[in-house]
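Support request, priority: normal
Reporter: lab tech (M.K.)
Component: structure prediction queue

Hi team, I submitted a job for Ornithine carbamoyltransferase from Streptomyces lonarensis yesterday, and the status page still shows it as pending. I've pasted the exact input below so you can check whether something in the sequence is tripping the parser. The sequence length should be 332 residues. Please let me know if I need to resubmit or if it's stuck on your end.
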Amino acid sequence: MLQATQSRPAGAFFDRPGYVRPRQERRHLISIDDLSGAELRHLAARGAEFAAGAEADGLRGQVVGVLFRKTSTRTRTAFSAGALRLGGGVVTYGPGDLQENTGEEVSDTAAVLSRVLDVLVARTAGPESELRAYAAQRRMAVVNAMSATEHPTQALADLTTLLRRFGRIEDLHVVYVGEGNNTATALTLALARFRGVRLTLRTPPGYGVPTEYLERAAVYTARSGAVVEQRHDMAELPEADVVYTTRWQTTGTAKPSADWREVFAPFQVREETLTAAGGPVFMHDLPAHRGEEVTGGVLDGPASIAFDQAENKFHSARAVLEWCADPTTERY
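Reply from support: The job had stalled in the queue. We restarted it manually and it finished. Here are the results:
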Protein backbone atom coordinates (compact mmCIF):
# COMPACT_ATOMS: atom_id res chain seq x y z
CA MET A 1 0.00 0.00 0.00
CA LEU A 2 1.40 3.37 -0.99
CA GLN A 3 2.26 5.80 1.76
CA ALA A 4 0.70 9.23 1.47
CA THR A 5 4.11 10.70 2.24
CA GLN A 6 5.93 8.76 -0.50
CA SER A 7 8.57 11.03 -2.03
CA ARG A 8 8.56 11.99 -5.70
CA PRO A 9 11.35 10.73 -7.95
CA ALA A 10 14.27 13.13 -8.13
CA GLY A 11 14.11 15.28 -11.24
CA ALA A 12 10.46 14.47 -11.93
CA PHE A 13 8.88 16.93 -14.35
CA PHE A 14 6.58 18.34 -11.72
CA ASP A 15 9.61 19.33 -9.62
CA ARG A 16 11.02 21.58 -12.33
CA PRO A 17 10.11 25.25 -11.90
CA GLY A 18 8.54 26.77 -14.99
CA TYR A 19 8.15 23.40 -16.72
CA VAL A 20 6.45 23.62 -20.10
CA ARG A 21 5.65 20.42 -21.92
CA PRO A 22 7.62 20.20 -25.16
CA ARG A 23 5.80 20.68 -28.46
CA GLN A 24 6.56 21.47 -32.02
CA GLU A 25 5.68 25.00 -33.03
CA ARG A 26 2.03 25.17 -34.03
CA ARG A 27 0.49 26.52 -37.19
CA HIS A 28 -2.09 29.28 -36.91
CA LEU A 29 -5.02 30.04 -39.22
CA ILE A 30 -6.14 33.58 -38.60
CA SER A 31 -6.40 34.81 -42.19
CA ILE A 32 -6.50 33.14 -45.59
CA ASP A 33 -3.27 35.07 -46.13
CA ASP A 34 -1.64 32.75 -43.57
CA LEU A 35 -1.87 29.90 -46.09
CA SER A 36 0.27 29.26 -49.13
CA GLY A 37 -1.50 28.32 -52.34
CA ALA A 38 -0.48 24.69 -51.83
CA GLU A 39 -1.81 24.69 -48.27
CA LEU A 40 -5.10 26.14 -49.46
CA ARG A 41 -5.45 23.38 -52.05
CA HIS A 42 -4.44 20.73 -49.54
CA LEU A 43 -7.06 21.83 -47.02
CA ALA A 44 -9.82 21.96 -49.63
CA ALA A 45 -8.90 18.50 -50.88
CA ARG A 46 -8.51 17.07 -47.38
CA GLY A 47 -11.99 18.30 -46.50
CA ALA A 48 -13.31 16.45 -49.55
CA GLU A 49 -11.45 13.31 -48.45
CA PHE A 50 -13.09 13.45 -45.04
CA ALA A 51 -16.46 13.96 -46.73
CA ALA A 52 -15.81 10.82 -48.78
CA GLY A 53 -15.30 8.78 -45.61
CA ALA A 54 -11.63 9.18 -44.69
CA GLU A 55 -10.84 8.70 -41.01
CA ALA A 56 -7.89 9.99 -38.98
CA ASP A 57 -6.84 10.34 -35.35
CA GLY A 58 -4.34 13.17 -35.62
CA LEU A 59 -5.64 14.79 -32.41
CA ARG A 60 -5.35 11.73 -30.21
CA GLY A 61 -4.07 12.85 -26.82
CA GLN A 62 -4.58 16.54 -27.64
CA VAL A 63 -7.07 19.08 -26.32
CA VAL A 64 -8.95 21.70 -28.33
CA GLY A 65 -10.38 24.80 -26.69
CA VAL A 66 -13.51 26.20 -28.33
CA LEU A 67 -14.09 29.86 -27.42
CA PHE A 68 -17.21 31.53 -28.82
CA ARG A 69 -18.17 35.01 -27.68
CA LYS A 70 -20.81 35.21 -30.41
CA THR A 71 -23.57 32.83 -31.39
CA SER A 72 -22.76 29.89 -33.62
CA THR A 73 -24.51 26.76 -34.84
CA ARG A 74 -22.43 25.37 -37.69
CA THR A 75 -18.88 26.48 -36.88
CA ARG A 76 -18.97 25.62 -33.19
CA THR A 77 -20.55 22.23 -33.84
CA ALA A 78 -18.16 21.50 -36.72
CA PHE A 79 -15.00 22.14 -34.70
CA SER A 80 -16.24 20.47 -31.51
CA ALA A 81 -17.39 17.36 -33.35
CA GLY A 82 -14.35 17.48 -35.61
CA ALA A 83 -11.95 17.44 -32.66
CA LEU A 84 -13.76 14.47 -31.14
CA ARG A 85 -13.76 12.55 -34.42
CA LEU A 86 -9.99 13.13 -34.69
CA GLY A 87 -9.49 11.59 -31.26
CA GLY A 88 -9.07 14.80 -29.27
CA GLY A 89 -10.76 16.29 -26.25
CA VAL A 90 -12.77 19.52 -26.19
CA VAL A 91 -13.04 22.32 -23.62
CA THR A 92 -15.68 24.96 -24.37
CA TYR A 93 -15.81 28.59 -23.26
CA GLY A 94 -18.78 30.93 -23.52
CA PRO A 95 -18.83 34.74 -23.68
CA GLY A 96 -18.27 35.32 -19.95
CA ASP A 97 -16.19 32.31 -18.95
CA LEU A 98 -12.62 33.62 -19.11
CA GLN A 99 -10.99 36.10 -16.76
CA GLU A 100 -10.45 38.51 -19.64
CA ASN A 101 -13.91 39.71 -18.67
CA THR A 102 -12.49 40.90 -15.35
CA GLY A 103 -9.49 42.64 -16.88
CA GLU A 104 -6.89 39.93 -17.48
CA GLU A 105 -4.77 40.71 -20.53
CA VAL A 106 -5.10 38.52 -23.61
CA SER A 107 -1.39 37.73 -23.51
CA ASP A 108 -1.70 36.34 -19.98
CA THR A 109 -4.76 34.28 -20.90
CA ALA A 110 -2.96 32.90 -23.94
CA ALA A 111 0.15 32.08 -21.90
CA VAL A 112 -1.94 29.98 -19.53
CA LEU A 113 -4.15 28.30 -22.14
CA SER A 114 -1.14 27.39 -24.26
CA ARG A 115 0.24 25.27 -21.41
CA VAL A 116 -2.91 23.15 -21.42
CA LEU A 117 -4.49 23.37 -24.88
CA ASP A 118 -3.06 22.25 -28.21
CA VAL A 119 -5.50 24.28 -30.33
CA LEU A 120 -7.75 27.25 -29.58
CA VAL A 121 -10.65 27.80 -31.97
CA ALA A 122 -11.94 31.30 -31.27
CA ARG A 123 -14.84 33.42 -32.48
CA THR A 124 -14.41 36.86 -31.04
CA ALA A 125 -16.17 38.89 -33.75
CA GLY A 126 -13.59 41.52 -32.84
CA PRO A 127 -10.45 42.70 -34.64
CA GLU A 128 -7.94 40.27 -36.08
CA SER A 129 -5.31 41.80 -33.79
CA GLU A 130 -6.93 40.10 -30.80
CA LEU A 131 -6.45 36.68 -32.40
CA ARG A 132 -2.87 37.60 -33.30
CA ALA A 133 -2.31 38.35 -29.61
CA TYR A 134 -3.50 34.84 -28.75
CA ALA A 135 -1.16 33.47 -31.42
CA ALA A 136 1.93 35.32 -30.15
CA GLN A 137 2.85 32.25 -28.10
CA ARG A 138 4.22 29.27 -30.07
CA ARG A 139 2.80 26.23 -28.31
CA MET A 140 -0.93 26.49 -29.03
CA ALA A 141 -2.41 26.73 -32.53
CA VAL A 142 -5.02 29.47 -32.96
CA VAL A 143 -7.87 29.18 -35.46
CA ASN A 144 -10.04 32.15 -36.41
CA ALA A 145 -13.63 30.92 -36.27
CA MET A 146 -14.78 34.39 -37.38
CA SER A 147 -13.47 37.86 -36.67
CA ALA A 148 -15.05 41.18 -37.56
CA THR A 149 -13.12 41.30 -40.82
CA GLU A 150 -12.62 37.74 -42.03
CA HIS A 151 -14.12 34.23 -41.77
CA PRO A 152 -11.35 31.97 -43.13
CA THR A 153 -12.78 28.63 -42.03
CA GLN A 154 -15.98 29.43 -43.94
CA ALA A 155 -13.94 30.06 -47.08
CA LEU A 156 -12.21 26.70 -46.69
CA ALA A 157 -15.57 24.96 -46.34
CA ASP A 158 -16.70 26.80 -49.47
CA LEU A 159 -13.67 25.54 -51.40
CA THR A 160 -14.41 21.98 -50.30
CA THR A 161 -18.02 22.48 -51.41
CA LEU A 162 -16.93 23.64 -54.87
CA LEU A 163 -14.47 20.77 -55.18
CA ARG A 164 -17.09 18.20 -54.24
CA ARG A 165 -19.71 19.69 -56.56
CA PHE A 166 -17.61 20.42 -59.65
CA GLY A 167 -14.53 18.26 -59.17
CA ARG A 168 -12.38 21.37 -59.45
CA ILE A 169 -12.12 24.99 -58.35
CA GLU A 170 -10.11 26.30 -61.30
CA ASP A 171 -12.03 28.08 -64.07
CA LEU A 172 -15.27 28.40 -62.11
CA HIS A 173 -17.32 31.59 -62.15
CA VAL A 174 -18.79 32.58 -58.78
CA VAL A 175 -21.20 35.50 -58.41
CA TYR A 176 -21.36 36.76 -54.85
CA VAL A 177 -24.44 38.87 -54.05
CA GLY A 178 -24.83 40.95 -50.90
CA GLU A 179 -22.79 42.69 -48.24
CA GLY A 180 -19.00 42.63 -48.50
CA ASN A 181 -18.72 41.14 -45.02
CA ASN A 182 -16.24 38.80 -43.34
CA THR A 183 -17.49 35.85 -45.40
CA ALA A 184 -17.00 37.82 -48.62
CA THR A 185 -13.49 39.01 -47.73
CA ALA A 186 -12.28 35.49 -46.96
CA LEU A 187 -13.93 34.10 -50.10
CA THR A 188 -12.28 36.82 -52.18
CA LEU A 189 -8.80 36.06 -50.83
CA ALA A 190 -9.31 32.32 -51.33
CA LEU A 191 -10.74 32.27 -54.85
CA ALA A 192 -8.14 34.76 -56.08
CA ARG A 193 -5.53 31.98 -55.71
CA PHE A 194 -7.08 29.63 -58.27
CA ARG A 195 -6.24 29.64 -61.95
CA GLY A 196 -8.95 30.94 -64.23
CA VAL A 197 -11.48 31.65 -61.48
CA ARG A 198 -13.79 34.59 -61.98
CA LEU A 199 -15.35 36.15 -58.90
CA THR A 200 -18.03 38.74 -59.56
CA LEU A 201 -18.97 40.73 -56.47
CA ARG A 202 -22.39 42.43 -56.61
CA THR A 203 -22.58 44.43 -53.40
CA PRO A 204 -24.89 47.26 -52.26
CA PRO A 205 -23.41 50.76 -52.55
CA GLY A 206 -21.58 51.59 -49.35
CA TYR A 207 -21.41 47.93 -48.31
CA GLY A 208 -18.81 46.49 -50.64
CA VAL A 209 -15.74 44.37 -50.04
CA PRO A 210 -13.20 46.86 -48.63
CA THR A 211 -10.51 48.16 -50.97
CA GLU A 212 -7.82 46.65 -48.74
CA TYR A 213 -9.07 43.15 -49.50
CA LEU A 214 -9.43 43.81 -53.21
CA GLU A 215 -5.82 45.01 -53.26
CA ARG A 216 -4.67 41.92 -51.37
CA ALA A 217 -6.59 39.73 -53.80
CA ALA A 218 -4.97 41.53 -56.74
CA VAL A 219 -1.57 40.26 -55.61
CA TYR A 220 -2.87 36.71 -56.01
CA THR A 221 -4.77 37.26 -59.25
CA ALA A 222 -1.61 38.66 -60.86
CA ARG A 223 -0.09 35.20 -60.41
CA SER A 224 -3.12 32.95 -60.89
CA GLY A 225 -4.88 34.69 -63.74
CA ALA A 226 -8.09 34.81 -61.71
CA VAL A 227 -10.38 37.81 -62.08
CA VAL A 228 -12.08 39.64 -59.20
CA GLU A 229 -14.44 42.48 -60.03
CA GLN A 230 -16.93 44.42 -57.91
CA ARG A 231 -20.05 46.32 -58.94
CA HIS A 232 -22.75 47.92 -56.85
CA ASP A 233 -25.83 46.96 -58.87
CA MET A 234 -27.63 43.86 -60.15
CA ALA A 235 -27.88 44.89 -63.80
CA GLU A 236 -26.71 42.51 -66.52
CA LEU A 237 -25.94 39.61 -64.23
CA PRO A 238 -23.42 37.34 -66.01
CA GLU A 239 -23.79 33.59 -66.45
CA ALA A 240 -22.12 31.75 -63.60
CA ASP A 241 -21.53 28.35 -62.07
CA VAL A 242 -22.46 29.56 -58.58
CA VAL A 243 -24.53 32.33 -57.05
CA TYR A 244 -23.61 32.86 -53.40
CA THR A 245 -25.19 35.09 -50.78
CA THR A 246 -25.12 35.62 -47.02
CA ARG A 247 -27.68 37.05 -44.64
CA TRP A 248 -27.93 40.80 -44.52
CA GLN A 249 -27.46 41.08 -40.75
CA THR A 250 -23.86 39.98 -40.24
CA THR A 251 -23.26 38.46 -36.79
CA GLY A 252 -22.05 41.08 -34.35
CA THR A 253 -22.11 43.96 -36.85
CA ALA A 254 -24.59 46.83 -36.87
CA LYS A 255 -25.44 48.74 -40.04
CA PRO A 256 -24.35 52.39 -40.05
CA SER A 257 -27.48 53.62 -41.84
CA ALA A 258 -31.08 53.29 -40.66
CA ASP A 259 -32.39 52.87 -44.23
CA TRP A 260 -30.01 50.04 -45.14
CA ARG A 261 -32.84 47.63 -46.01
CA GLU A 262 -33.88 49.86 -48.91
CA VAL A 263 -30.31 49.77 -50.21
CA PHE A 264 -30.13 45.99 -49.89
CA ALA A 265 -33.57 45.15 -51.36
CA PRO A 266 -32.44 44.92 -55.03
CA PHE A 267 -29.81 42.36 -53.99
CA GLN A 268 -32.25 39.67 -52.88
CA VAL A 269 -31.55 36.36 -54.65
CA ARG A 270 -34.74 35.16 -56.32
CA GLU A 271 -35.59 32.50 -58.88
CA GLU A 272 -35.20 35.16 -61.58
CA THR A 273 -31.67 35.83 -60.34
CA LEU A 274 -30.67 32.23 -60.99
CA THR A 275 -32.35 32.29 -64.39
CA ALA A 276 -30.45 35.45 -65.34
CA ALA A 277 -27.20 33.76 -64.26
CA GLY A 278 -27.81 30.79 -66.54
CA GLY A 279 -28.97 28.23 -63.99
CA PRO A 280 -26.12 28.08 -61.44
CA VAL A 281 -26.10 26.25 -58.14
CA PHE A 282 -26.92 28.35 -55.10
CA MET A 283 -24.71 28.65 -52.00
CA HIS A 284 -25.40 30.31 -48.65
CA ASP A 285 -23.21 30.15 -45.54
CA LEU A 286 -26.29 30.12 -43.26
CA PRO A 287 -28.12 31.07 -41.15
CA ALA A 288 -30.60 32.39 -43.68
CA HIS A 289 -33.53 34.73 -43.40
CA ARG A 290 -36.01 33.58 -46.02
CA GLY A 291 -37.66 36.56 -47.64
CA GLU A 292 -34.71 38.88 -47.01
CA GLU A 293 -31.43 38.00 -48.77
CA VAL A 294 -32.98 34.95 -50.48
CA THR A 295 -36.43 33.60 -51.20
CA GLY A 296 -37.54 30.31 -49.74
CA GLY A 297 -38.01 29.01 -53.26
CA VAL A 298 -34.29 29.40 -53.96
CA LEU A 299 -32.94 28.24 -50.60
CA ASP A 300 -35.14 25.15 -50.55
CA GLY A 301 -35.13 24.62 -54.31
CA PRO A 302 -33.28 22.14 -56.51
CA ALA A 303 -30.37 24.51 -57.25
CA SER A 304 -29.51 24.98 -53.58
CA ILE A 305 -26.48 23.20 -52.11
CA ALA A 306 -26.52 25.36 -48.97
CA PHE A 307 -27.09 22.46 -46.58
CA ASP A 308 -24.39 20.36 -48.24
CA GLN A 309 -22.19 23.42 -47.76
CA ALA A 310 -23.09 23.47 -44.05
CA GLU A 311 -22.15 19.79 -43.71
CA ASN A 312 -18.84 20.52 -45.39
CA LYS A 313 -17.95 22.82 -42.49
CA PHE A 314 -17.57 19.67 -40.39
CA HIS A 315 -15.34 17.98 -42.94
CA SER A 316 -13.31 21.15 -43.46
CA ALA A 317 -12.96 21.69 -39.71
CA ARG A 318 -11.29 18.30 -39.40
CA ALA A 319 -8.88 19.24 -42.17
CA VAL A 320 -8.01 22.50 -40.41
CA LEU A 321 -7.55 20.89 -37.00
CA GLU A 322 -5.37 18.14 -38.43
CA TRP A 323 -3.22 20.67 -40.29
CA CYS A 324 -2.83 22.97 -37.29
CA ALA A 325 -2.21 20.46 -34.56
CA ASP A 326 -0.71 17.30 -36.03
CA PRO A 327 3.07 17.72 -36.39
CA THR A 328 3.19 14.76 -38.77
CA THR A 329 1.24 16.59 -41.49
CA GLU A 330 3.43 17.99 -44.23
CA ARG A 331 4.20 21.70 -44.29
CA TYR A 332 3.52 22.85 -47.84
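The first strand starts at residue 63 and ends at 68. The beta strands are 63-68, 89-93, 119-123, 141-144, 173-177, 198-202, 227-231, 242-245, 281-284. Let us know if anything else looks off. Ticket resolved.
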